[in-house]
Each structure stands twice: as C-alpha cells, then as structure tokens.
Amino acid sequence: MSLLAVGLSACGPAPRQNNIDDPYEAQNRQMHKLNIALDRALVKPASQAYGKVTPDPLRRGISNFASNLSLPGVVMNDLLQLKLGAAMQNTARFAFNSTVGLAGVFDVASMNKLPERPNDFGQTLYVWGFKEGPYIELPLFGGSTERGAIGLAVDFAANPTSVLLAKNQRRVGTVAKVLKKAGDRYKYSDLVDSVLYDSVDSYAQNRLLYLQSRRRDLYGSISESDLEDPYAN
C-alpha cells in the first residue's frame, strides 16, 4: 500500500478538460442513430412494460440488490485511489445491506446514514493521471470517453462479485443489473425522451450532458467554459 501511495503521489490526477474533443464525430453520430433505433424498438418498450407490470417496491428492491452487488468493485476502486474513508464506508454499507438488508434488497444502510460513495475505474484512471481522451459513443451505453470506456470494461471484468460468485449466482446478478437499467429507463423516461427525441440535435445534447456530468463528478465543479458547447453554433 505504501508503494502505491508513492506511485499515486508521483503521477497525480490527469489535467482538467474544458473543451469538447470529438474527432470521431461522424462515426459517433452513426452509433447514436443506432442507439436511438435500439431504444425505440427495444429498450424503451421493454422498460415501459417492466415498469408498468412490476410494483414500485419490487423494482426498488431489484435495483438495490443490483447496486449492492456492484459495491465490492466500488471498494476496490476506493483502495486503488487510497480513499480509505470511502472504502470503509462502502464496505460497511455492503456488509450492512448484505446481512440485515437481505442481500441488499432493502437499503437499510442509507436509513442508518451510510449512503454509497460512488466510484469506478474510470475515476481511478483519472487519479492515476490518464487523460480523458476523445469523446466516443458506445453501443447501448451511450456517451463516454476513451478513458471512460476502458474504465467501464475493467469494472465489468474485475468486479470481485463477478469473479467469486458461482455461475448461477452471477447469472442472477446479471439479470438484476439489466432490470435495474430497465427500471432507470422507466423512471427517467420523460428526461431521456426529451434528450433523444425532442432535441434539435440529440447527439450534441447527449454529448454535452455526459461531459458536464462526468467532469463534475471528477472535479467537484466545472468551469463556465465547460457549460457551453462550442459545436452548438
């Protein structure tokens, strides 16, 4: 751990980005069209069906369960970034919800002032000094950056629960995570629809919203220049 601390202090976080770097815009727009087609034909109808037939308490329980399964990966990233306080809080949350909360179905940790402190490998790469890289749009996942895409792949492959659970348990976890995404699409349907279907340029709007949100998560705040899209005009 001490060697890791020395390494992190030597490299430092990546520089802040205030511009929009999108050299693959033509390809990204094609992927965005595909994502909209998938949403219209599959994702939105499935999420609407799921949301309407599944009672809200059950949807919330499935979402809690899926989030709880992801917490060991969050703790792993806390440790990689030497955020020991966050690691302890997320570990306590996982232990509390996994036991008293019945495998995380009930979020008793939040009721006891133990909210999740989100983290992921994309943030770890930022702390380690990796630059953001160009903006890219991923199939189904939507907006990202090169750094974010690498982080997403590592989080998916290296989550301790994915490695340690039995095959049938991993399958249950995967189904829960898919249902959580469907529940989120249903819950935020109006917002998602306004971006995808009501925007003059839904690609540029989605890109701007993603970069603003992601940079705010990383930096804690963003500059005024990051709130404007230079491509808007």
| Rounded Rg | 19 Å
Which sequence of SSEs, written as H and E, runs from N to C? HHHHHHEEHHHHH
What is the number of domains?
A: 1
**N→C terminal distance:** 49 Å
Query: Looking across the biggest beta sheet, what order are the strands in?
Result: 1-2
Instruction: Name the average pLDDT.
Output: 91
Shape annotation: globular
Largest sheet: 2 strands, antiparallel
Number of helices: 11
> Which residue ranges are poorly predicted, with pLDDT under 50 across at least 5 consecutive positions?
2-6
Q: Can you count the beta strands?
A: 2
Q: Give the structural class.
A: mainly alpha
Helix content, binned percent:
55-70%
Question: Which strand-content bin applies to the residues?
Answer: under 5%
Write the layout of secondary structure elements.
Layout: H1 2-11, H2 25-53, H3 56-80, H4 84-99, H5 108-111, H6 121-127, E1 135-138, E2 142-145, H7 146-158, H8 160-164, H9 167-187, H10 189-197, H11 202-219
Antiparallel strand pairs: 1-2
Helix pairs in contact: 2-9, 3-4, 3-9, 6-7
Question: What does this entry look like structurally?
Answer:
With 233 residues, the protein is mainly alpha-helical. 67% of the residues lie in helices and 3% in strands. The model is unreliable at 2-6 (pLDDT under 50). The chain contains eleven helices and two strands. It is globular, with a radius of gyration of 19 Å.
